[in-house]
Amino acid sequence: MEFLYSVFSFLYQFGDAFAFLVLSACGLAVIFGMMGVINLAHGEFILCGAYVSTSVTHMGVPLPLAIIAGSVAAGIAGMIVEVAVIRPLYKRPLDTIVATWGISMIVTQGTLIVLGTTMAGSGTPFGSFSIGNYSYSVYRVVLMIMALVTLAALWLMLTKTRFGILARATIQVPHVAEALGVNTNLVYSMTFGLGAALAGLAGGLYAPTMTLVPTMGSSFMVEAFVTVVVGGADIFLGTAPAAVVLGFIKATLTSWQGQLAGQIGMLIAVIIVIRILPRGISGKILKERA
Amino acid sequence: MERNLTGAISALATLLSFAGPLAAQNVEPIKLGVLEDQSGDFALATIGKVHGIELATKEINDAGGIAGRPIELVTYDTQSDNTRYQEFMRRVLQRDKVDVVFAGFSSASREAYRPIVNQFDGLAFYNNQYEGGVCDANMIVTGAVPEQQFSTLLPYMMETYGKKVYTIAADYNFGQISAEWVRNIVTENGGEMVGEEFIPLGVSQFSQTIQNIQAAKPDFVVTLLVGTAQSSYYEQAGAANVDLPMASSVNVGQGYEHKRFTPPSLKDMYATVNYVEEIDTPESKAFVEKFHAMFPDEPYINQEAENSYAAVYLFKEMVEKAGGSTELADLRATLADGELCYDAPEGKMCIDPKSQHTSHTIYLAHVKEDHSIEFPTKWDAIQPYWLGDVGCDLTQNDPSAQYTPSSLPSAD
Amino acid sequence: MSHPSRFTAFLKLVEGPQTLGKGPKFWSLFALVLLAACIYPQFADSYDVGNNVYFFNWIFMAMGLSLIWGYGGALSFGQTAFFGVAGYAYGVLTINLGDAYGLTLVSLVLAVGISALFAAILGYFLFFGRISGVFLGIVTLSVTLVLERFMAQTAGPQWAIGTARLNGFNGMGAMPSLTIPWPGGAIVLYPDVTLYYATLALLVAVYLGLRILVNSRFGNVIVAIRENPLRAEMLGYDIRKYQLITFVIGSALAGLSGVLYTSWGNYITPASMGMTAASLPIVWVAVGGRSDLTTTLIGALAVLIVFQTLTIYGSQYALVVMGALLVITVLIAPRGIVIALSDLWPARKSKMKGEL
Questions:
Q1: Gap between the Cα atoms of C273 and B200, Å rounded
Q2: Which of A168, A194, A193, A166 is nearest to A182 (CA)?
Q3: Within an 8 Å CB–CB cutoff, is residue A260 touching chain B?
Q4: Do residue B211 and residue A13 have CB atoms under 8 angstroms apart?
Q5: Cβ distance C111 to C89 under 8 Å?
Q6: Number of cross-chain residue pairs from A and B with Cβ atoms under 8 Å apart
Q7: How buried is B120 (Cβ within 10 angstroms: 0-12 exposed, 13-18 middle, 19+ buried)?
Q8: Count of beta carbons in the 10 Å neighbourhood of residue B217
Q9: What is the three-class DSSP state of A221?
Q10: Best interface-test mutation with C: which of A270, A276, A277, A281 has the largest number of C CBs within 10 A?
């Protein structure tokens, strides 16, 4: 029995790390993988989702609706940013680093000025359950399920819907798509908006468990970048397996040697993976398939 | 915020022009430099410090200034960035030629500016609780230090809840040195450390830590968490139903976690603080009222805001005792008899001449299930004794160094 | 000017297709600016002089990144790793060796050497592993973040090299400033006039040296690699070797910045290798115009000065204005503000066009 308890506890830790990596990275993966844009304002879309969903919760709206509201708000903000700032920069992807860094500075400090240094949290719902000697938060299991649901929904959206097919076509061969009558500008906007909405979703989901401050987005950034880079450009063939691998490394090292080892181990894993697979996990898979 | 400030300044201007012998023309103001993080990761705990300084300055100027001279504030936002402290410490000392500087939240920022203060032989007040040990004639520390907070807190906790202790601490100087203090005091009092865990700064996810704590079965947990990301621990531990009493020297009194998180995640947190706004003495109530009159939107008045407020008065005391001089040697001479004191909102504070740290009234703040605070006990006039005990004596020599329990001054 | 042939020989070295600015007009302007910089301390107070040294300290890192990214086409997001390694190396060396007999200068050379060696090892791994593009940026960023996290937890007394405590997140202090041994008393280079001239001289030397480098055959090859790595390889160049050398030189310059910064403030901290610190060089270089040494130099100085001024006068709005400036700059000045501004100046316009 003791053994089963430990197995469950490890699975819980792994699932927790996996969920955090998937949810923080999805939005970034869509924007980077499909558009080649490095979005340093990713954390600020997470911030937007978290703040909007928490404010809406404070008004009495149930949490699931509030999270959707946060995600939609971030998505709309993302489309505005795409039109105003990102669109002129498609020919110079590296310049988007500077532009999105600028946006990140404006949003973080703007939030501080307008909304103050902190916002009251909404509290984690659902309580806890016990297995063996340990008690666990139910909400964190919900987060793990949401990570899987998000991946499944994204897959359906990109493979089964008209938007998904147009988006992939536009990204692969933009001029042909355009010649075939696709409004490529709209597709780019929608894709960027989708990425931002996913970031907002992560923010909304994690908001009840975290401190709400203007700089909160930054605590997602390292994990998000690491996952996307290890994964490579393809969301399903890359991000999901990368989150599995990194989640496993992080959970193992953290439980064995503590938090610092978990953090440093993950960063070293990145360096090693990239050395072996210069185009990430998905690059390797796609190459072998081709 | 901006509007209030303007209002306050114009009110001040009106006051000055109407009344007061002070308004007497052509008095050279006393310049007080303020370097605090008003943006970035530390802003949450430090904006109140700037407001505390502004409040004290307004009161002092209304009442005639320091030795007849008004205080002029020279304030820069250091953006939670060490390099900004280096840039602006040089600026206030060399360009603005201030008489004194109030600077710094994180210990790293203090260490960044300290060489510059030493080089120009200036005077800096560090108005923040920290890991202790700075023995430097150019520095005066008004915040609480570990011997003041842990020698009171831990024996109380061990008596009340039991002797098995688990520490989680931020993985840097403050956390590591504080954890060392906890370890020493717990073992001295016959207790046992059942676990100790260090969390890198910026980490916001705590599932594994929560599980480790549950496995070790302590009687209470000492939380020495720093920064906004790490404070997410409370919400996550609450959600996982850890339900253990907690003790801290840094949480509640600095980052007002009990106001930011939904009850009951901080239930049974005990913190030793030298001030929090809930203290219900008449002095404290009057202070809170004055503070809110000037800054109605202030989310919370933490101990660092009170330290900063009191520091202005302590400085005033020093200058007046020195007969109006702002020379470093004259100011330090006023500390010699240990009677340089101020009746702060918390109670009496005095500067110790050997270490140039400050004695405090230490309150034990207990966070209840609904996150209201009660004070089971308080300790009067707790001295910052440790530096003096290990051989720091600034009246004799000035090593300008920082000591820790495992890195003591050499014997010479 | 008395030796026109020597002057022409000099021009031949420092001018070429890879750098903006040529001919007597440009070099007269250069001399004028240099002269102004030289007499400047006579008119400024010591705060301004020391503050300018602080700005100069960072320019080496910016020019190094211009070489790696602007000329070589490899975006390194982790130049701060070399900055930090050299800064800490200088601290450890000088605390142990002391400041007599010019040992601080020896430490400077050693510290820059250590960062160059580190860059060589990392660069070998990167370029011979054929890592490129965004991935190169992320690996270098990961390296600097690992170093930051690691150094942040070295507060305990067990983390010491000789008598030098690494001292964790609080940072290492109490290292001596650069000191020149001099008959009749060593000259300590505090942030003041002497250090100003020393740093200025170093800056001019590095600037001219880099101009010579990028206009040499080597420079042409690295630009060819940036434009089309495959073609360069087909022409028989081992592009990995060229990229590696570029990376080492650029990183050594970041190391030089690290040493100068550490000596300037007698302080170095893990935060100098953090995420914010790592992105700043990219901002300086991108705003000025990364593909040219001169625009990088002017742009980086401008950004440093503007950001500091904003922080002094802009109170809490400073960061918002900085962010807005970055976005606007990228949108309306794709090749950096320096070229954009000179385009606004019609007389110069035709000339610049002719040069490009």
A1: 15
A2: A166
A3: yes
A4: yes
A5: yes
A6: 120
A7: middle
A8: 12
A9: helix
A10: A270
Q: Whole-angstrom Cα distance, residue B35 to residue B50?
A: 9
pLDDT tens-digit readout, A146-160: 999 998 898 888 888
> CB–CB of C50 and B81 under 8 A?
no
Residue from B94, B118, B174 to probe the interface with C (highest C Cβ count within 10 Å):
B94
Beta strands in chain A (DSSP E): 128-131, 134-137
- A113 Cβ contact partners less than 8 Å away, ≥ 6 residues apart: C316, C317, C320
Over pLDDT 90: what percentage of chain C?
35
Taking the C-alpha atoms of residue C78 and residue C140, their distance in angstroms, rounded to an integer, is: 4
Q: Tell me if C323 and A99 make a contact (CB, 8 A cut-off).
A: no
User: A254, B208 in Cβ contact below 8 A?
Assistant: yes
Among chain A residues, CA nearest to B1: A113
C97-141 pLDDT tens trace: 888 888 889 999 999 999 999 999 999 988 888 777 777 887 888
Question: Nearest by CB to C283, which of A98, A103, A279?
Answer: A98
What are the residue ranges of helices labelled H in C193-317? 193-215, 217-227, 229-234, 239-265, 275-288, 293-313
In whole angstroms, give the CA distance from residue B288 to residue B303. 12
A residues 126-165 closer than 8 Å to C (CB): none
Inter-chain residue contact C157 with B406, CB threshold 8 Å: yes
Residue B392 DSSP symbol: -
Say whether pTM exceeds 0.90.
no
Nearest CA distance, A286 vs chain B (angstrom): 33
**A270, C279, A108, C318 alpha-carbon torsion, rounded to 10°:** 170
Give, for C117, the enclosing helix (H) or strand (E): helix C103-127
A267 and C132: CB-CB below 8 Å? no
Q: Are A192 and A9 in contact (CB under 8 A)?
A: no
| C325 vs A104: CA distance, rounded Å | 12
